Amino acid sequence: xxxxxLTGIRKRFKGGADVIPDMHLAIDDxxxxxxxxxxxxxxxxxxxxxxxxxxxxxxxxxxxxxxxxQEEPAERNVAMVFQSYALYPHMSVARNIDFGMRxxxxxxxxRKAKVDExxxxxxxxxYLDRKPAALSGGQRQRVAIGRAxxxxxxxxxxxxxxxxxxxxxxxxxxxxxxxxxxxxxATMVYVTHDQVEAMTLADRIVVMNGGCxxxxxxxxxxxxxxxxxxxxxxxxxxx
Length: 239
Ligand code: ADP
Ligand code: MG
Known about the structure:
It is a single chain. This protein has 239 residues and is α/β, with parallel strands linked by helices. It has helices spanning 43-51, 93-103, 108-121, 137-149, 167-184, 195-201, 219-224, 229-235, and strands at residues 4-12, 18-27, 32-36, 58-63, 66-67, 78-81, 155-159, 187-191, 204-209, 212-217. Strands 6-7-8-3-9-10 form a six-stranded mixed beta sheet, with helices on both faces. The protein has a four-stranded antiparallel beta sheet with strand order 2-1-4-5, covered by helices on one side. α5 (167-184) links the parallel β7 and β8. α2 crosses α3, α2 runs parallel beside α4 and α3 crosses α4. The structure holds adenosine-5'-diphosphate and magnesium ion (MG).
C-alpha cells in the first residue's frame, strides 16, 4: 500500500511569498496522477516535498498512512526521477543503477539480481558497461528510471522526465511508462507540460495554478467538464 496524503501543506521560501498556500491532496494507492500547470506554479516544489527533498513550512505528508513529514528522503517509500537524469558520468550504467543499493549496503548478489531485472525491464541489457555519455537521451532516462526501480518504492515521483527527448522518443517512452505502471502497480505522481502525456497516462489529472489546485479529475472529466477557462486551456478542451 502506498497512498500519499498531503494535509494543509504550505511552502514559503526564505524571504518570498507563499509558493504553496494550503494544499490538500489525496493520491490513491496504485494510481497514476499527473500534475499539470504553468511554469512556476509549484509542481516541482510539491514533488520535492513528497520526496522529502524540501521541507514544508506547515502541514503534513503521509505515505502508506504513516506520517513521514519529519523523515529523510531515504526513509520514505519513494523514488524520484528528474528531467535532467542526474546520472554519474564517470560510472557505468550498471554502477549508476547499483549506486543507491551500495550505499544502503544491500548484499552484492541481491544488487546484481536487481540491476539485471531493471535492465531487462528497461531494455538496457546491452548497455550495462557503457558510460552515460555513450547513451542516447532515451537510454539515459531509462537508466534514471532503473535507479528508481531497484529501490522498490511504493511511490514514483517523475518531474518532466521526457521533456528533454525528441517527439518520437517521447512517444515510445510514454508507452513504456504506461507498461511499467501496469507491471509494477506502484503509485506514480508525474509532472508534465505535455497534454498528450497527461491525457494518456493519467488516471487522474491535477491542474495547478499559483500553488493551488484549480481542478482535479479524470482526463475525461476535465476534458468534458472543465471548471474554468484556465483548465480548459490547459487540457485543450473546446470551451
Ligand atoms: P514548477 O515546477 O511548477 O515550474 P517550482 O515548484 O519549480 O514550479 O517553483 C515554484 C515557485 O517557487 C517559483 O516561483 C520558483 O521561483 C520558486 N522556488 C522554487 N525553488 C525555490 C528555492 N529553492 N528558493 C526560492 N524560490 C524557489
Ligand atoms: Mg518544475
